[in-house]
Amino acid sequence: MIERHFREEHQVKFYANQLNKSPKTLSNLFAIYIKEILCKSFMKGSSLKPKRLFYYTDKSAKEVGYMLGFSDPAHFSHFFTRKTGQSPKNFKRCEKDISIGKKLQVAGQ
Q1: Which whole-number Å values give the CA distances from 70 to 13, 15, 37, 46, 75, in the listed order?
Q2: Cβ–Cβ < 8 Å for 64, 50
Q3: Res 45: pLDDT
């Protein structure tokens, strides 16, 4: 539809009417779609960037989510859990336990 009409139609309202959606609904869907694309580019399948932020900083999941462009902490938490198989809270707790274990192991040698 965009390919057929992009030269003449530049308003969200036109496309929303064509899809029987409200302009706000269409804008929200577009925002979610764009956010998903941006998040995929940040995470590249391995969730490396948020994992690094959790590991090397004391930032909360909310702060990390905002840094990565999420305006809703719950959306970031859901996205992170879906990509990694664990919640940000559990990831941070596991990493902290592993780090403490390594320090205890080094100290015990």
Answers
A1: 26, 26, 12, 18, 7
A2: yes
A3: 47
Please give the angle made by the CA atoms of 48, 54 and 60, to the nearest 5 degrees: 135
Q: Where are the alpha helices (DSSP H) in the chain?
A: 2-5, 12-18, 23-43, 48-56, 61-67, 73-84, 88-108
pTM higher than 0.70, yes or no? no
Q: Which two tokens stand for residue 66?
A: 């905002």
- Burial 81-91, CB ≥16 within 10 A → b, else e: eebbeeebeeb
CA distances, 109 to each of 11, 37, 46, 70, 99 (Å): 68, 47, 33, 43, 16
Which pLDDT tens digit goes with each residue over 45-97?
A: 446 778 888 888 888 999 988 887 788 889 889 888 888 888 998 888 877 65
